[in-house]
Amino acid sequence: ATLNAPREALARVPPAPDPLLPAAQRALTEGDGTRADRLIAMAHRRDPRSRYTLMLLLEQHLRHGRVDELAGVMGVLTRLQSEAGEALLAVLARMATDPQTSDAVRAVVESDAAIRRGVLEQLAQQGADPDTILKLAGDNLQPAPGEETPRWQRLMLEGLVSRGEVGRAYEAWTRLAGASADAADAGIYDPEFTGLPGPAPFNWRFEQTSDGFAEVSRGSPGLFAEYYARKAVSLGGQLLRLAPGRY
After folding, report:
1. pLDDT in tens, 41-58
2. Measured between alpha carbons, how far is 216 from 183 in angstroms, rounded to an integer?
3. Cβ–Cβ under 8 Å, residues 157 and 124
């Protein structure tokens, strides 16, 4: 009955694109790309502004590695509906984890920093594999001096730690910080507060609250802290990995 419903709808409203979409989705599920392409193209001709058709068209361009066509569809989607941006990022994030389409996604985000940032945040929130996230991020992992740590880095590392995957979080952190694998194993990272690269939690994280704040001193190495003595507060800290033993 479910499969027959689109056929009946198509008979009632022949020019409508929507009844073609379930058939196209089914063809994709069954691996019949040629039939899916034909159905999606037909639906697109009937209504070039259909968001659902454009999403399927986007997925097909990704699967075939058609980067130029993909960029065109993305432009249409974002112009038609501002809220389509979130759906677009969700599709790109899902395709970034598929070996068949990951290269095409990387080619797309190379030319658009905002889309790259959005896809990275989606992947980090979904708990995607750190290697997938870092590969999509490319070589520019460290923020410029004075810039905040990108949100996707915080989401990725905090997610790994919260799931108990501290070892994987530390491995990813060393790549983000450009630090050697034993940089923090020797003890506290950046004990002199010189502002070494790398995000929290394996580097310093400072708090700014109504009861006080702390930050790395500007000009000379050291820590500047201001505390109003109202109540006990934590002004800063970092996560340490300690080998078994007495401390």
Report:
1. 888 888 888 888 888 887
2. 19
3. no
